[in-house]
Amino acid sequence: MKNIIITGAGTGMGLSMTKKFLANDWHVIMGVHNLDKAKGVYQELVQKYSPEKVTLKQVNVGDSKSVAEFSKEVNTENSHIDAIINNAGIFTGGQLQDLTEEEWDRTMAVDVKSIYLMTKAFVPGMIQRRAGSIINIASVAGLLGDYSMPAYNAAKGAVVNLVRSMALDYGPYGIRVNNINPGATNTPMFKENPETVKQSYRDASPLKKIAEPEEIANVAYFLVSDQATAITGQNIGASMGYGIWSGQPKQ
Predict the structure, then answer these.
(1) Of 138, 124, 221, 108, nearest to 169 (Cα)?
(2) Can you give the pLDDT of all 251 residues of the chain as single tens digits?
(3) Which of 152, 170, 221, 242 is catalytic?
(4) Is the model's pTM score more than 0.70?
(5) Which of 47, 68, 86, 125 has the fewest CB atoms in 10 Å of its CB?
(6) 152 is catalytic
(7) 3-184+213-238 falls under which CATH superfamily?
């Protein structure tokens, strides 16, 4: 059985990815920040897929000690890791002068440092086996600028370029590294927005719709699968078309 680690797996895109891989007979190691909140979902998955196919573990992906403890347990319990999806992330809004240093540092830790920590913990095993796939969840906000999102833009922009370096370094070992760049997606957090806000995002999309978490999960599964063996170092857009407009007026 193939083993995959998915962080931020208890809700939203991470949960959809978990379900997608479980449905295709993978063993999923769910990394979550809040164990109590994820226990209900975990029990539902265990009942549907069996305890052997899904494992729930707590990890603070931006903290080195937490990731070290997590990786020690995972590597002890599993003979190998085939894939990692660095999905856990946070959004921080506000102009630079209004952000606290703590907000800035936490955004960088969860959205960028986490990839460094998770890779450092698990890529040695992939190098030894000369096989593996790593996916980072970046964002269309890492490709372009947004109003009042400097911390988020900076963090996701770092991830957008990091994937290229990782792909160059690990390619010789048979390890592929890719990003998925979603736009607005119908996660529980996004659904909390007023309807006027949600409609404005639909209007901004050429497809006039918001992505569903399941659609992002489909992209993730494809990129990990043997159908994508020629793809590495790429930023794959899954944003319903955000970012394709030059900004020039319609003629």
Answers:
(1) 124
(2) 999 999 999 999 999 999 999 999 999 999 999 999 999 999 999 999 999 999 999 999 999 999 999 999 999 999 999 999 999 999 999 999 999 999 999 999 999 999 999 999 999 999 999 999 999 999 999 999 999 999 999 999 999 999 999 999 999 999 999 999 999 999 998 999 999 999 999 999 999 999 999 999 999 999 999 999 999 999 999 999 999 998 899 88
(3) 152
(4) yes
(5) 47
(6) yes
(7) NAD(P)-binding Rossmann-like Domain (3.40.50.720)
